[in-house]
Amino acid sequence: MRFNKRIQGGLLATAMLLAAVVVPAQAASAAEAQPAADAATNVTLFGITDFHGHIENGGYLATALKETKAKNPNTLFVGAGDLVGASAFESSIADDVPAMEQLKTMGLAVTATGNHEFDKGAADLADRIVPGIAPAKYVVANVTGDVLKDKVQPYAIETIGGKKVAFIGGVFGTLADSVSPAGMKGITVTDPIAAVNKYADELSDGNEQNGEADAVVALVHADANDLTGLDANVDAVLGGHTHVYETAKTKSGAPIIETANYGTQYSTTDLQITGTGKDAKVTATAEKHDVFGGEKGDTPLYQSDETVNKIYTDAKAAADAKGDEQLGTLAEGSTFNRGASKPGDLTTRGNNRGVESTLGILNGNAAKWAADQAGQKADIGVINAGGLRADLDPNNDGKVTLKEAHDVLPFGNSNAVITLTGAQLKTLIEEQWQPANAQRPVLWLGFSDNVKYNYNTYNATIDGKTVPRAKVYDLTVNGKAVQPTDTFKIAGNSFLLAGGDNFTVFQKGTGYVDTGYIDFDGFSDYLKANPGLEAPKARNSAGFSAVKLDGNTVSFTVSGLAFTTDEPRPWGIKLTANGVDFGNIGDLDFTGEEKGPGAGSVTVTKTLTDAEKATFLENAKKAEAIDGQSLSIADASVETLATKPSDQPQPQPTEPALALADENNNALKALSLKPNDKKTVRAFVKGENVEGTKIYWQSSDPEVVSFAPKDGQSGENGKSRAAQASVAYDEQTLLAHKDGNAIITVTATVNGKDLKAELPVAVRDGKIVKPSLYFTDANGKKITSLKLKKGASQKVWAIAEGKSVEGKPVQWKSSDPQTVSFAEKTAQSAPNNGSSNAVAFNAQTLLAHKDGKATITVTATIDGKALKAELPVTVGETAPAKTAPTAGKTAGKTAGNGLAKTGTDMTLPAVFMLIVLGVGAGAVSIARRQQH
């Protein structure tokens, strides 16, 4: 340990002045020729951190460095990490070669590693980045592993002005949590303070065997305030990582400085070094300098160095050319835009950050996906509206280029994850309504499409200013109600997750991890992996305000029902609020407003029955208290209706009969859903007396499709409501979980007759690219052969998959009809499909006649490709007599197990009586709707 290494600058200056007085002229001349060992030398460190490949600023930095060297030739250019990685487009697209060329040209001598130097793994740092920035030396004392050996040292000693200055590197101790684990195998990360102190002590103990230096500087990629524990043998510290200017001191008084990011600031640290080795005395001062000034901070304070700037201009030209590379495609008619201040006016796109946008939802999905790819399984993705700087497809050609994608996300922020509780997630959404002094009253977040919520809006007076506010309710993730103690891993950019844009609840989150994936890179990869992206048709939130009750007449406004640019406008909504069914409501107002939540609003008025009024008020009591508002909405179901529901009567089953339809009473024969989708399905019963009829629901595979819990999951939920005549219905909400096929079976017994209806459901993630044709059994399980007993029958499904399968004929054939034939004597039939593409179903019932073998063949042409599937069938012994199961034995008792047995409140209102009229048992028409 050096004795009294650090002394105060004032004492040193006094000692130097006295020495100058007593030194003879001859001695002074000799000192100029050859500095004495105990002579004072001033070394200047020109320092930057978190450059992140912002090569547009490199030319200005180079000039600042030249001017610093002109003042003191003993100047050394050093860095504190993250000089590359998470870079600007022009550098990032060229794997940061331009950034490395600039740093090399500027003469970077030594730098610490940051976390972003490990973005692509430790091997990438050792084998690409280190040689790329040569002759600069990368140093880090607290990260070790074989791949770094001889490539990255704990410290480097540079001789300047005749003095040996040691630079010890470090990076924050939770590095492993901030980069992909795949690239850190065999790498050990320890406490940076302990590691730096260890080498600082060795370099100051007088033992030449373990190295000696005249001054020791720590270059640590960590917040300046986290470095105060460095010991007395450290003479100066340069910090980094947090992208802000900060200063602090070690316990012994050594200065710690951290400048802002992207080359917009630099530091100068002056080291006054007297003596050598163990006996050297050092005093240090540090100062911050701006590269840009002016009112907006974007006016260069230096002329740009031509040589260094040319690296930027050349890189920009190459990047602009490469920007034409196609990354992805959009579905026909899909628009991914930011919010407009004047709905429908495309010249105002991007001006309104206070509304939900299709582009925000897309980027929320992409953030979640990117975190998953980096090994951080996220529950939710999110992006701030200010992070979206351009619309995705400005020329509307359906193709997304690299430049178009980069224009959307130009900042080069890291993709990160953080964990919030359910209560904090609710607070996060409410923080969209900004503080009273904020520039914008509302900043809307773009959430992944598995997040849905409603909210009550109101005005509050804060600090004498009236501002909009909201209380969130009906918050769900993946269709499940969010509880305060639930936890959710949320993926987003590092700016937002650090509490940017006044979303301060993120600062109370836990488990923050930087994935090492740049948001733009993640977005680009998402576009490549998901061609034909289809824009959402409906918003995932709705607002309620101005709830009033005058006698039995209730009125309120529902808002935020539409997007604001050129997306298709919905006809209206199907609404339930505070337990009262308000039916289908049209005539939405699309003029919108800029203070949130945007276009698409309607004022609802209804005169309630006494029973409805009591229900409405009882539910209203559950709403969170709101300033100045006596009534609020506590629960609501808002379903966007793209078109006006059909006024035409729907087919009616013969007596008795059972038919299936969607929530708008359009008949269903099949469904295609995506994971996490929800879909309401209704079962209509026709007969002489259906009051009290029990309807049983069953999913063949609850892991693919199950039912939302309903009324305590009871099998008997009170009397049915068929009342006057002979038509009743019951409904269930289907929950889609994972890729697969399932058959929803609905049974009932009417007038002593057992009835059954089947609804095949395909769940796909939308990535089907190859057309295919295959068989499944009645449970949706793929089969390649079948054994039947003589006299038996078996229903078999043919599944067709491709980009477009709706209406394509499927032909069935038996190689030996005497052995196996079809119950329905049809040579071919069109596939039944409730969606517009992806998957279609077609079924036949096989009849086994005699012992033998037959091959069932199905053929279809999908996406221009002729397909064939064959099912070998073996018929054996006579089958035992079968007893058809009764409806009462068909299903289990809990919706949670994928089974539901309900007879819920089945009275059909007059409007549904008109809708159901005219269904024939053998001819059910299909009115297809796009699934949302």
TrEMBL record:
Domain Calcineurin-like phosphoesterase: 48-245
Signal peptide range: 1-27
Gene Ontology molecular function terms on file: 5'-nucleotidase activity; UDP-sugar diphosphatase activity
SUPFAM superfamilies in the cross-refs: 5'-nucleotidase (syn. UDP-sugar hydrolase), C-terminal domain (SSF55816), Metallo-dependent phosphatases (SSF56300)
KW Isomerase (keyword) present: no
GO cellular component annotations of the record: outer membrane-bounded periplasmic space
Record bears the keyword Transmembrane: yes
Alphabetized InterPro entries for the sequence: 5'-Nucleotdase_C (IPR008334), 5'-Nucleotdase_C_sf (IPR036907), 5_nucleotidase/apyrase (IPR006179), Calcineurin-like_PHP (IPR004843), Metallo-depent_PP-like (IPR029052)
TM segment ranges: 906-927
Any GO BP: nucleotide catabolic process
Protein name per Swiss-Prot or TrEMBL: Bifunctional metallophosphatase/5'-nucleotidase
